Amino acid sequence: MAAVAAVTLFASGCGFLGTASPRNLDVISVSSPRFRDGGPLPREYSCKGNLGNPPLRWSGTVGAKSVALVVDDSNPRTGAEVHWVVFNIDPNTTEIGEDDVPRGALQGKTTSGKVGYAPPCDPEGTYRFTVYALDAKLDLSQGAELPDTLREIAAHTIARGRLTAATIE
Q1: Beta bridge partners of 127
Q2: Would you list the domain boundaries of the chain?
């Protein structure tokens, strides 16, 4: 039940990762060579495909001690869902390859309880790939519980950027 509450606060847009008051954050530029912001997520990166996570690139994490990535869907029809959490990414890393996790990075549990990329399925969903620059390396282990991971990311965020896929092809 706590995981559902954390995801709801995180994805509802009623504050930054569930915090009461949003902070002024620096902006990270996030892109993908496979889809444009606001465009559809290629089918190959959904539950109908077999390519795993899409490749992502970012810039603007200068001064970060680590980087985190959260992929979520805030579809009001089906409810909030987190599809992937990656944290403790080396701050010098500026991209994630297709079906890849950067060396040394850790993955937390998703809404479904899976550790790793849980491909989205709803063709009408809005999928957000959000990159966070953090002021610390998170004191969490591989497979950390979703509420713990989201809380720690929120507590240490100094910059944020997002790439959104409006639907699935």
Answers
A1: 73, 165
A2: 2-165
Which run of H or E residues covers position 123? none
C-alpha 109/C-alpha 111 separation (Å) is: 7
Confidence of residue 23 (pLDDT cuts 50, 70, 90): low
Over residues 43-75, the pLDDT tens digits come to: 999 999 999 999 999 999 999 999 999 999 977
CATH number attached to the domain at 2-165? 3.90.280.10
CA of residue 26 relative to chain centroid, distance: 17
d(CA 130, CA 167): 16
Residue 12 burial (CB count, 10 A): 12
* Average pLDDT rounded to a whole number, residues 113-135: 95
Exposure b/e, 86-117, CB count within 10 A at least 16 = b: bbbbebeebebeeeebbeebbbbbbbeeeebb
Flag whether the pTM goes above 0.85.
Answer: yes
pLDDT of 161 higher than 80 = yes
The three-class DSSP label of residue 153 is helix
